[in-house]
Structure formats: structure tokens, C-alpha cells
From TrEMBL:
Pfam families: GST_C, GST_N
Domain of life from the UniProt record: Bacteria
Domain GST C-terminal: 108-234
PROSITE patterns for the chain: GST_CTER, GST_NTER
CDD domains per record: GST_C_Ure2p_like, GST_N_Ure2p_like
Similarity remark: Belongs to the GST superfamily.
Name assigned to this protein: Glutathione S-transferase N-terminal domain-containing protein
Amino acid sequence: MSDLSGFPVASRWTARHPDRLQLYSFPTPNGVKISIALEEVGLPYEAHLVNILKNESWTPEFLSLNPNGKIPAILDPDGPGGKPLALFESGAILLYLADKTGKLMPADPARRYETIQWVFFQMGGIGPMFGQLGFFHKFAGRDIADKRPLERYRDESKRLLGVLDKRLEGREWIMDDEHTIADVSMLGWVRALKVFYDATELLGLDGFRNVMRWLDAGLARPATQRGLNIPPRP
């Protein structure tokens, strides 16, 4: 049986199945990237709820796993060379899972890098911009009298949606007919614009027809439906 006792995070979130990959997360757009990916690749794992509403990601135990204090993070008892591997940053985790399982990633080297560039597009653009839009449109930022920050993130979010919409023209998925970690990385964020940030009208989402078609197809996947609720929201 795998021994995780050397990792402080395991003292707070005790593993019932220490031989499985351990996921520490919360069902946010970043968090569900990994639960959806794990459901897609079929790798056995155990999910632990890190309640960010109670600042649990800032506890010493979680910070020992991710010093940046953000979910998601994983602890794989069967990492490279058979040694445990702790990993944070959702984009890095997606790449790791794809490499470990040989799934959600094209085999062709050129297409592999093309996939990775779209994951970086999500990490550097869609995630930060959509998140700021949500803050200024729905959460505390909406009470700020100066609406220039909201307008900035609205306009940038629309621009990014336009980039994605053009990429998806004539394509089922971001990488043509191959569903990859690029799709998984973005799905939760685009979904959040509709169901969490209430930004459909603000952004004119229905006008991005390729994106909306792609979103519906992604949400219809059984692995996505399961992963969106792992770990369950408290």
C-alpha cells in the first residue's frame, strides 16, 4: 500500500485509497478541468473537497502542496519512476494526465504542441479575463461606481470568445475531430459565463455560434457531466 504520510496535506485530507491519485479541489472552472479530465481518461482517483469558501486552500497543509494557495492540486502516489508526485497549476496537471495515460492528446508531435498552445491560451487569457469579468459583473466589483474595469474585461472577454469562435469554425473540437485537454481546459470557463456569471446578455454569447455549439457538445459528454460535480459543492 502506498504511504502518503510524508505529505502534510494527507494529514488533513485523509486518503481512503492511498494507492490512487489524490485530487484536492473545488468545483470552480479551474477545479473541474481536472475532475473532467480524470473522468475522461479513466484513471482511478480519490477526490477531496478543499472548501475555498472557508479559506481551506490557505491552511498550512494545503500550502505544503501548493504554496500559491489555489486549487486544484494533485498527489499521485505512482508518479514518474514509481515515486509520489505532488503537482499544482491546472494546466500542468492536464499535461501530466495526458502524458501519463496517453489520452486527450494527439500522438503527432506537431499536433501535440498545437494542443498545448491552446491550453496556454486558456491559462493566460480565458481564465484570467473571464474570472475578472465575473468579479466586476456579478460579485463585489459590481458595486464599484467606475465601470471602466468591467468594460475592459467585457471587451477582452468578447475578443477572446471571437478567437475561439473562429478556431471552431468547421471544427467539432479545438483540434478538429479530436477531443483534447485544450477543450477540457476551456469548457468550464465558457460554461461559467452562462450559468455562474450571468453574462450571456452582457457578452452577446448567443452570437458566438461555434462556441455555443462546442459548449453544448462538451457538456453532453458523460465524463463532463460527472466531472462538473466532483468533488460535490458543499
